[in-house]
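Lab channel / #folding
Pinned by the channel admin:
"Please post every new chain as: sequence first, then the structure tokens as a reply. Keep commentary short and put observations after the output so the thread stays searchable."

First post following the new format, from NK:
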Amino acid sequence: MRKEDCFYLGKIVKKYGFKGEVLAKLDTDEPELYENLESVFIAHGSNLVPFFIQKSSLHKSQLLRMRLEDVDNEADADAIMKSELYLPLSFLPKLSGNQFYYHEIIGFTMTDVSYGKVGTIVSVNDNTAQALFEVENDGKQILIPMNDEFIEKVDRKNREIVVRTPEGLIDLYL
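Reply from TO:
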């Protein structure tokens, strides 16, 4: 399985007890969707290694307590500590309306109702206080805040996002 075919689920953050159980911090608003998984991919270098889950339960709402097959003691748990967890993209629930996953809008055209075609969405920057669409227009980068009030329409069929940005925002970049 390749990382490109998967989505980031979370990270193993600490050991639980001394029999190899681990706690993973899930990167989701709905951790209960992932409580009864059969398996998970753990990043090991540039590879994803499948691990079967013998038992799992939610621990303090955002943490998933897991007992993994072949992880039987503290040393085994230490070997996978701080590892990232992945699942195939097919496990993601389908979204509709103006909801979207960051990975699915890469390559979409962004159009502003006043300005017209802004450019192509090349990535999403979520390392800032406010997530930003990174849009490319003739070699120039335009940053548009990912704000529900700005997003008019997500058109999956035509691979387009229509926004209504404050007057002058796009002109700042061009």
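NK: Residues 102-172 form a domain with the SH3 type barrels. fold (CATH 2.30.30.240).
TO: also worth noting, The radius of gyration is 20 Å.
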